[in-house]
């Protein structure tokens, strides 16, 4: 019971941290007000949210990471003119690693979750190809397709 409460507290902290990141993202055109001027600035804090999420023990990590991954795909468009391809690659690689960790830690993954994860990862692959990245989420999709 105590472990479940601790996990809920961790989830609440992650969700709070995520809301702060979202607020700062919406101020991206106002860096003087704390907004993220660059993708790298955004990722410094968003990456921490992803990192904390991937270490959750409950299956909530799958849903949270699905949401975060989809959000990141949308955020990519906002920095399209300013970000370098290597910056996108680093972010996609970090998300691929997060998914590998979550997939490995939460076996067996239900068929429904597999489909949901693969859909969001394939959406990301499509988005990444627009930025010139051809192989993103390779490891995570391979883990799910290999089952």
What does this structure look like?
With 147 residues, the chain is mostly helical. It has one domain (1-145). The chain has helices at residues 2-26, 39-54, 60-78, 85-105, 111-130, 138-145. Helix 4 (85-105) packs parallel to helix 6 (138-145).
Q: How many β strands by DSSP? A: 0
Outline the biggest β-sheet.
none
Going by helix content, strand content and strand pairing, the class is mainly alpha
- Residue ranges: pLDDT <50 for 5 or more in a row? none
Q: Helicity range of the residues?
A: over 70%
Strand content: under 5%
Question: Overall mean pLDDT score?
Answer: 93
Alpha plus pi helix count: 6
Distance linking N and C termini: 33 Å
Overall geometric form:
flat
Q: Radius of gyration, rounded? A: 15 Å
| Total number of domains | 1
**SSE string:** HHHHHH
List the topology elements:
Blueprint lengths: L1 H25 L12 H16 L5 H19 L6 H21 L5 H20 L7 H8 L2
Helix pairs in contact: 1-2, 2-3, 2-4, 3-4, 3-5, 4-6
Features:
147 residues, mainly alpha, 6 helices, 0% strand, flat
Compact overview of the structure:
This protein is mostly helical.
